[in-house]
């Protein structure tokens, strides 16, 4: 019986302690609520206007830290262990000394240093040095524009394109282009050229473009069969200045521009490869019916020859109605 009473006493004590904990927690919350209400007792809720000017008067924050307890949010500092100090002090690194700066060794040379050679410009070889001093050599192109030249300078043997525009060159000699087997284009626009040797261009096997406008030529030399474009506008070439059938054997000729000269007839026969024929502003007065088309072959069609200019000539194109049947387009000129 005594043991039973003892167990009952212990149970009652445990229940009392359990009931006491909630009561204590409730009392703490009630006290905190009273403190919060006391903080705002002086605030007039009927006339409440919080601004930056009266913020300090309405809310007293002087004891802000006392009102709220943030002890539970304080970070916990864990203390670890430090590395043991070595028994031998000599094992510690000496932080008072720095690594010695290596000394620079003087540069020694076995002999004098020679400057690097200056590369020559373009592909100009020693034999062509004069032309590359007077002109600009870039690759296989030689530019001699506006250089006040009176004759064509010696050219590198690899020259492919020559530009000597706006100079004072007055003549073209046969020796000017000797040995230039790769020369494809010659542009001598706007010089004072009045004559050229007969063989000045004939022996150039690769020549495709010969540009000679704005000069004083009165005759054209013989041309190589490789020529594709001939531009001799704005010269003084009469029909007698062209060799008989000068263009018949030029099977690759596509552009023949002889405008603004003194021609009095169309230089026939014309090669079938021709695409553009400019003869405007000459003195052409008549033509043959076979100038462009074969009058014996009415099935002939020259599809390539699409650009013929005869404007600025006194010829009346309407007088030759059978001269254009093979052309894809009528020539440009006067038809009345």
UniProtKB/TrEMBL annotation:
<dbReference type="InterPro" id="IPR000372">
    <property type="entry name" value="LRRNT"/>
</dbReference>
<dbReference type="GO" id="GO:0005615">
    <property type="term" value="C:extracellular space"/>
</dbReference>
<keyword id="KW-0964">Secreted</keyword>
<keyword id="KW-0272">Extracellular matrix</keyword>
<dbReference type="InterPro" id="IPR032675">
    <property type="entry name" value="LRR_dom_sf"/>
</dbReference>
<feature type="signal peptide">
    <location>
        <begin position="1"/>
        <end position="20"/>
    </location>
</feature>
<dbReference type="InterPro" id="IPR003591">
    <property type="entry name" value="Leu-rich_rpt_typical-subtyp"/>
</dbReference>
<dbReference type="GO" id="GO:0060348">
    <property type="term" value="P:bone development"/>
</dbReference>
<dbReference type="Pfam" id="PF00560">
    <property type="entry name" value="LRR_1"/>
</dbReference>
<protein>
    <submittedName>
        <fullName>OPT protein</fullName>
    </submittedName>
</protein>
<dbReference type="InterPro" id="IPR001611">
    <property type="entry name" value="Leu-rich_rpt"/>
</dbReference>
<keyword id="KW-1015">Disulfide bond</keyword>
<keyword id="KW-0732">Signal</keyword>
<comment type="similarity">
    <text>Belongs to the small leucine-rich proteoglycan (SLRP) family. SLRP class III subfamily.</text>
</comment>
<dbReference type="Pfam" id="PF13855">
    <property type="entry name" value="LRR_8"/>
</dbReference>
<dbReference type="GO" id="GO:0061975">
    <property type="term" value="P:articular cartilage development"/>
</dbReference>
<feature type="domain" description="LRRNT">
    <location>
        <begin position="131"/>
        <end position="161"/>
    </location>
</feature>
<keyword id="KW-0677">Repeat</keyword>
<keyword id="KW-0325">Glycoprotein</keyword>
<dbReference type="GO" id="GO:0031012">
    <property type="term" value="C:extracellular matrix"/>
</dbReference>
<keyword id="KW-0433">Leucine-rich repeat</keyword>
<dbReference type="GO" id="GO:0030199">
    <property type="term" value="P:collagen fibril organization"/>
</dbReference>
<dbReference type="InterPro" id="IPR043547">
    <property type="entry name" value="Mimecan/Epiphycan/Opticin"/>
</dbReference>
């Amino acid at each position: 019986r005594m043991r039973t009473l003892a167990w009952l006493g212990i149970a009652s004590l445990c229940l009392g302690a359990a009931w006491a904990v909630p009561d204590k927690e409730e009392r703490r919350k009630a006290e905190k609520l009273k403190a919060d209400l006391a903080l705002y007792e002086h605030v007039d809720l009927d006339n409440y206007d919080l601004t930056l000017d009266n913020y300090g008067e309405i809310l007293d924050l002087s004891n802000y830290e006392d009102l709220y307890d943030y002890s539970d949010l304080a970070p916990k500092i864990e203390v670890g262990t430090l590395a043991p100090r070595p028994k031998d002090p000599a094992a510690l690194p000496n932080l008072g000394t720095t690594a010695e700066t290596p000394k620079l060794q003087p540069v020694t040379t076995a002999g004098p240093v020679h400057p690097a050679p200056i590369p020559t410009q373009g592909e100009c070889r020693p034999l062509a040095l004069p032309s590359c001093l007077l002109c600009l050599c870039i690759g296989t192109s030689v530019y001699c524009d506006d250089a006040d030249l009176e004759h064509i300078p010696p050219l590198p043997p690899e020259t492919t394109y020559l530009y000597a525009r706006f100079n004072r060159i007055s003549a073209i000699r046969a020796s000017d282009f000797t040995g230039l087997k790769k020369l494809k284009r010659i542009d001598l626009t706007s010089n004072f050229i009045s004559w050229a040797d007969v063989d000045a261009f004939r022996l150039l096997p690769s020549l495709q473009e010969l540009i000679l406008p704005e000069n004083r030529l009165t005759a054209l030399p013989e041309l190589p069969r490789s020529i594709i474009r001939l531009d001799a506008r704005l010269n003084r070439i009469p029909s007698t200045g062209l060799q008989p059938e000068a263009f018949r054997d030029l099977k690759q000729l596509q552009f023949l521009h002889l405008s603004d000269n003194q021609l009095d007839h169309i230089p026939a026969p014309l090669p079938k490869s021709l695409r553009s024929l400019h003869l405007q502003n000459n003195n052409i007065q008549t033509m043959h019916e076979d100038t462009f088309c074969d009058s014996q072959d009415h099935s002939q069609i020259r599809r390539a020859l699409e650009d013929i200019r005869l404007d600025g000539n006194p010829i009346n194109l309407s007088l030759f109605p059978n001269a254009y049947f093979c052309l894809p387009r009528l020539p440009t000129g006067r038809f009345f």
